[in-house]
Amino acid sequence: MLNNFSSHRTQETPRIPMAKTTKIIRRSIYIFLQNYQHFTTTVAVLAIPFAASILLSQALVPSSSSLLPLIHNRLKTLFEAAGFPPSSEFFSILSLKLSQTISSSIFTLPFSLTFLLLAKASIIQVLRQHKPTFPPSFSSLFSAFSPLFHTYICNSFLILSANATVFSLLLIAFNFLEGSGFSSPNCILFLSAAGAVLYSIVLANALIISNLALIISGMESCGGYLAILKACVLIRGRTSVALSLALPANLVLAGIEALFQYRIVRAYRLGGVASHSMAFEGMFIAYLYSISVVLDTVISCMFYKSCKIGSWIEQEDGISYYSHQTDTAGDDEQGYVNLKNCEENV
Q: What's the CA gap between 172 and 116, in Å, rounded?
């Protein structure tokens, strides 16, 4: 009977499909244009210091004479001490990229914890209200900033844990491979490629969960690990949509960073002198970057609302189905009683 109930439940209430990526992006652009003046002035100006720190870190960190080489040498020593093959090109590239990411994160951390979170809090305060006030009050910004701050700190530990988990699995795999006698260059290359794919998948999921947790902490006023747990529950079955939404946003941000490298950093290294036109162009590129960050946050908010709507519909369908089953069972029982009374009267 339970099997028939489960199969019938699946047939009557199929899984609610997630809103398409293009629909969420179109809705996000509409919301952005609807609040264009607020998003492109107050919020974008709040995000400009963070955008400038990101762009400048791409130029200053590689030329740093102390921080980047120090982190790179420590990571390289750590990988060699852990037992990773020193001949693997994958770990050489990974240690270099991780060193650049850590150095850039240290450089931009004060701006991320202040200007970026304030910009996100301002956007969330606008989108969580049916009739928002412009600009949002300082008290409302502070009430949204506090859970965002705690969640951002917890997100850092989440990303660190994701990296540590992947490195531990790769260490076990390489040691097992070496202990089994399969330490040929082809085997190491195959395992390195598999490790690169695994690392990309785990890191991408950790980043989209962290991003959604920030939105949840602002929308629902809950910070820390609770927001991360809610993000893990809410994103179930919707990971592909989240990845497809994050891909174009990250491509746009990467394109703006490349534009800054080509127009500003390259011109400065060739000429050796920073002109006024170069400074104004750099500020304009930083403004474009901040606008992209604002639009990415709006898209994340629309994705959160789409997830909540899909979750509510699934719950309501489940309640409706159980109510329908209860009503049907009651009707059958009443019909049986009436039939029994008719038989006795006859």
A: 38
DSSP 47-74: HHHHHHHHHHHHHHTTT-SSHHHHHHHH
Query: CB of 175 within 8 A of CB of 244?
Result: no
Write out pLDDT tens, residues 267-291: 878 877 777 888 898 899 999 999 9
Contact 213, 227 (CB under 8 A): yes
| Rounded distance between C-alpha atoms, residue 234 and residue 315, angstroms | 13
Give whole-number Cα distances, 22 to 15, 18, 166, in Å.
Answer: 20, 11, 32
CA quadruple 253, 297, 248, 153: dihedral sign: positive
Angle at 146 between CA 210 and CA 222, to 5 degrees: 60
Q: pLDDT digit string (tens) for 169-197?
A: 888 887 787 777 766 777 777 877 888 88
Which whole-number Å values give the CA distances from 117 to 56, 101, 145, 147, 331, in the listed order?
Answer: 19, 20, 6, 10, 56
Helix, strand, coil abundance in the chain, percent, nearest 5: 85, 0, 15
Q: And the tokens for 133?
A: 């006030």
**Residue matched to tokens 């990101």:** 54
The contacts found for 29-36 with CB under 8 angstroms, 24 or more apart, are 29/295, 31/127, 31/298, 31/302, 32/294, 32/295, 32/298, 35/126, 35/132, 35/134
User: Residue 66: CB partners within 8 Å, gap ≥ 6?
Assistant: none
pLDDT below 70 — which residues of the chain? Answer: 1-19, 62-65, 83, 86-88, 130-137, 182-183, 314-346
Q: Is the dihedral of CA 230, 233, 238, 244 positive or negative?
A: positive
Structure-token match 């969960």, residue found: 209
